[in-house]
Design a protein that fits this description.
globular, about 240 residues, 10-stranded mixed sheet, single chain, two-stranded antiparallel ribbon, alpha/beta
Length: about 240
Amino acid sequence: MGKQWFDYKGLKCVVLCAGQGTRILPCSSEKAKVMVEVKNKPILSHVIGYWKRYTNDFIFVVQYEKEQIIEFVSQLPINSRFVEQKELRGIGDAILCAKEFVSDRFTVVLGDCICQGEFCFPQNMEQGVGVWETNNVEDIKLSYSVEIKNNLVCRVEEKPKKVLNNLCGMGLYFFDKRIFRYIKMTKPSKLRNEVEITDVIQNMINAGEEIMPVHFQGDYLNITYPEDLQRAEEILFK
């Protein structure tokens, strides 16, 4: 029986929550996106609540209205550290901010992505991405598509215009420190002039790194628009 990825101590979870979230909040809002409430609790509270099943060690990458996040998290019974992303240059750059504080292997989660369910972790996995099956094409178009061959991720595409299957890439990643070298090698995208994590992952795949799909059974949502708050409530409180 092979060793599963989470079977060790010292796991750290990097939570990315630096963005403003203008699609869900007015541009003039003085509230961080992850602090928007679902059922009287910030989105971030639900995210932390889910990932506490795996770890009690969290690193929060913050920027916009960071004081709100720091004040809220500091009251929780978890081990927390905060690092600021000076410029919002994409998920890849945000992960790089946490380089000095993670162990060899670590998790990355987006602070606005909620889930209810279970992951099926491949045995002997070193690096992987969360993959969720959905019949809702719009979920995939708002996130990224995933193609799998021989039980490995062979292709990822950010916000695809054409969806080829029912696999949605989740904002949940399982990396080791090799990721940092590829982040530094990846140029900002033409899409948003940011270091897209999907570009980083594709560069890893092209270089021969094995990225495994970590299949998720349950409900998942990348909260993006105001109408997603009702859907989030339905997922979290079934």
